[in-house]
Design brief:
The structure holds two protein chains of two kinds.
Chain A lengths: L1 H17 L15 E2 L22 E12 L13 E10 L4 E8 L4 E11 L2 E2 L7 E11 L16 E12 L4 E12 L10 E12 L4 E10 L11 E10 L2 E8 L6 H6 L11 E11 L7
Antiparallel strand pairs in A: 1-6, 2-3, 2-14, 3-4, 4-5, 5-7, 7-8, 8-9, 9-10, 10-11, 11-12, 12-13, 13-14
Chain B lengths: L1 H16 L5 E14 L8 E12 L4 E7 L4 E2 L2 H11 L7 E8 L11 E13 L2 E14 L2 E12 L15 E12 L1 E2 L5
Antiparallel strand pairs in B: 1-2, 1-9, 1-10, 2-3, 2-4, 3-5, 5-6, 6-7, 7-8, 8-9
Classes of the chains: A mainly beta, B mainly beta.
């Protein structure tokens, strides 16, 4: 009986001592699901859409330029004599759905897109290893028809792109994504060109500092779909973030800043030094404030 | 003899078990901070409504933990920069305060009311641990602590949080912090 008492007392003492730990340890551990954020500085890698979306209620105004080929030499001031521009507005309808439209000076093209993020990379309970999004874009080329006398159809001006974006932020420094793409052109110039063009894009970033990242992307177009002379798009650049702006400065062999253009109409030959200087400037505005503010 | 031992044991258990009581906790504590520079065109403030805290009235010990990622800003981009560039929440996911109520005797659980207290301890944030002493108040209702409140200022440089000169006209070097935590008794003493 005495032994029982002693054990009871000892047992009770150990329980009491066990309380002399961190107070917060008394609360059961919780590992709430947390979304992985900031895989890329903005919603474009360079030309390609990145796996990032514009947040709900945020308007992202983008001004982008591509200059002429550096290979034009001093006579063309290394391409600065020529420039094409696109300006666009992206808006976050929800945290998962972004819509946008833009206008490019190149071929006087209007474009619009819808992007839907259906998987979001997260940590904690029920973690999701990747982010996945669907992108659908339309482009309307509005240059005058080359031959106004023949029967021209409005539909000949239209282009569509469908893209799946699969990506992951592997670490604070490294993010990578794949973008299988299909570009549909209602009208092509010659028989050897396909109306449907399949391509696989890849893009990634390496974080160089808190506010600077190195980005690169390459888009491989599957063979025998384009007329000879067209090239795969290759771009490298830096993202520099300053408060509400992101500056993207890059070298690219593509002229167009929309999918149907840079995937299927890139002409610059990387081996000939046909790179252009380009930049995108993104400025965000909060249109809808969260409830608490 | 055995009866005496038994009753002695009961008293002992009752006394020591007393230590398991007098604990209060919360998971819904609210931290608000304002780091807006004077004359800044942009307001830099955030709310965290998932702050954990435990108070032990027997020892006067008090702890707080806040996940950096749970701070919500008016602007999504500010929130991203707060996590990415300033607090580096992937590297340092939590801010933790561990301290002690120095004038514990001032609190009378038998009398409802709000008791001003002093809490002194250390705050660990962004990998830096610094001493912190603040004025706080604890509200007693029906023999329980129901609410804890405090407000104080933090110098960001103490925690190696660097403000780039480019945004120094917007982000203040000292953040004003307000805390209010609704407490409930910690039932299980384990």
């Amino acid at each position: 009986m005495k032994q029982v008492f002693i054990w009871l007392v000892l047992g009770h003492l150990t329980i009491s001592f066990a309380q002399a730990q961190d107070l917060l340890d008394l609360l059961p551990d919780e590992h709430p699901r947390e979304l992985v954020t900031a895989s890329f500085k903005t919603n474009r890698v360079i030309n390609l859409h990145s796996l990032e979306n514009t947040a709900f209620g945020v308007l992202d105004f983008k001004i982008s330029h591509r200059f002429g080929f550096l290979s034009g030499g001093a006579y063309e001031l290394f391409g600065l004599d020529q420039s094409t521009i696109r300006f666009g507005f992206d808006y976050g309808l929800t945290d998962r759905i972004t819509v946008g439209f833009g206008r490019s000076s190149f071929e006087k093209t209007f474009d619009g897109f819808v992007k839907y993020k259906f998987l979001r990379q997260s940590t904690g309970e029920g973690a999701m290893p990747i982010t996945a999004a669907l992108l659908a874009t339309t482009a309307l080329q509005s240059t005058k028809f080359a031959d106004p006398d023949r029967e021209n159809y409005f539909s000949s001006r239209l282009y569509y792109t469908f893209q799946v974006i699969l990506g992951r932020k592997f670490s604070e420094t490294f993010s990578f994504q794949l973008s299988p793409s299909l570009v549909h052109r209602n009208l092509v110039a010659t028989l050897e060109e396909k109306n449907d063009v399949f391509a696989l894009g890849a893009g990634g970033r390496i974080r160089l500092g808190k506010r600077v990242t190195f980005n690169a992307e390459y888009i491989y177009v599957l063979p025998d779909q384009l007329a000879s002379g067209y090239q795969n798009s290759l771009s490298v650049g830096l993202d520099i973030e300053t408060g509400g702006h992101v500056f993207q400065v890059h070298l690219t062999n593509s002229t167009s800043m929309i999918e149907k253009g840079f995937i299927a109409e890139t002409t610059g030959d990387p081996f000939n030094g046909d790179f252009r200087l380009g930049f995108n400037i993104s400025r965000v505005f909060t249109i809808v404030k969260p409830k608490e503010f | 003899m055995q009866k005496m031992l038994f009753s002695g044991l009961m008293v002992f258990i009752a006394l020591t078990s007393g230590f398991a009581q007098g604990k209060f906790f919360s998971r819904e504590g609210h931290i608000f901070f304002d780091a807006t520079s004077n004359g800044s065109p942009e307001v830099i403030e955030a709310n965290n409504r998932a702050v954990s805290s435990v108070i032990d009235l027997n020892t006067g010990q008090m702890e707080f933990a806040a996940l950096i990622k749970s701070f919500r800003f008016e602007r999504a981009l500010m929130e991203e920069h707060f996590n990415e560039n300033y607090l580096e929440s992937t590297k340092f996911p939590k801010a933790v305060f561990k301290g002690k109520i120095t004038d514990l005797k001032a609190i009378n659980l038998g009398k409802d009311g709000s008791y001003p207290v002093k809490v002194t301890g250390t705050l660990t944030m962004h990998g830096e641990t610094k001493p912190l002493t603040v004025d706080a108040s604890l509200t007693v209702k029906g023999g329980k602590i129901t609410l804890g409140k405090s407000s104080f200022s933090l110098t960001l440089a103490d925690y190696k949080i660097k403000i780039p000169s480019l945004v120094s006209d917007k982000v203040a070097s000292v953040a004003k912090v307000t805390i209010d935590v609704p407490y409930q008794p910690l039932a299980d003493s384990k």
